Amino acid sequence: MPKDYYKILGVEKNANDEEIKKSFRRLAHEHHPDKGGDPQKFKDINEAYQVLGDKQKRATYDQLGSAAFEQASAAGGFNGANGFGGFGFGGQGFDVNMEDLGDLGDMLGGMFGFSSRGGRSRSKQGHDIETEVRLSFLESIFGADKEIRIYKTTACSVCHGSGSDPEGKISSCQTCGGRGRVQQAQRTIFGVMNTVVACPDCQGTGQRIEKPCKHCSGTGMEKLERTLKIKVPAGMSEGEALHLPSEGEFPGRGGRAGDLYIRIRVAAHPVFSRDDHEILSTVLIPYSILALGGTVDVDTVDGKVDLKIPAGTVAGTTFKLKGKGVPYSNGKNRGDHLVKVMPDIPNKLTREQKKLLEDLGKLGL
After folding, report:
1. pLDDT over threshold 90, residue 143
2. More confident position, 198 or 109
3. Regarding the domain delimited by 273-362, which CATH topology (the fold level of the hierarchy) does it fall under?
């Protein structure tokens, strides 16, 4: 029966290559048998992608339909000139294009113990680290230089992560020929899978150590407390994070360090608060200035400024101090400072003050 490869992948006939690949990856994750999916549906999805993901085969399919590929399928696999390199669930085994599978390829690699990418086996990736740095409100506005201490696994200070004694020799691994990987056939639930695994002798490094480093016993790593000097840029807010590549955990010989994420924590300020790039504050001023107008001193992150209050200003009015807010990431512009004015009403009034207010009340003020 003819198969509608577009329908199987859930894409339109005019879908571009990226849309087809994206849909394939999503469906492959969803229907993978080891995640509870249907093996036949998983096979159909891969079959459809191997045709639609190839421009020449897609053109043939658009002209002749799936019949052009059914002979190869009946033969027990799709490979070479007879069809397409993919899953052949006919009991004869199959090869997998793991690069097209993306993250799913990584998952399969972990399950079956092989590298999901071409070329030399990928180096081990160390764990990421997250820590915190605390800033005052003003430091978050203008930036600051800080020091943080982290205790982590780092490259050995003697061999610099190689695992070899500085006076020893490092030669190419004879087992894998320096490639760091070897090919082997593995039996799976789908049949025999030809896979590439990390070389068991060199652990995927492609190198052979003749004399291990005494300081780290050949592991290439040690635990140390490090002090890092960091520059927190202006304008960072609570909860944001700085990203320092390769400052995370070092996984040992043949690997590369993970990353460091520094979460920003900002202390509250007694006068100012923040809304994105705007700074907010409230100032209490005499009722007489609200009524008659005048000038008052207002605190900003840049110091005191004069704020002109027009006569007849209503309590709760907000004034904008342009360019007195939080800097933008471009370093050229700043947000605004919004100042709300409220009447300064004393808790206790003198007899004279009470008399004056009573007289104003009689005048309708």
Report:
1. yes
2. 198
3. HSP40/DNAj peptide-binding domain (2.60.260)
Domain 125-266: assigned CATH number? 2.10.230.10
Residue ranges of the alpha helices (H) in the chain?
5-9, 17-31, 39-52, 55-64, 67-74, 98-101, 103-112, 137-142, 287-292, 351-362
Write the CATH number of the domain with boundaries 5-112. 1.10.287.110
User: What is the distance between the alpha carbons of residues 69 and 86, in angstroms, rounded to a whole number?
Assistant: 13
Helix axes 17-31, 39-52, angle to 10 degrees: 170
pLDDT per residue over 1-34, tens digit each? 678 899 999 999 888 988 888 888 888 878 877 6
Beta bridge pairs of residue 148: 228
Answer yes or no: is pLDDT of 359 > 80: no
Q: Give the C-alpha separation, 294 to 128, whole Å.
A: 57
SS3 content of the chain, % helix, strand, coil (to 5): 25, 30, 45
d(CA 298, CA 318): 13
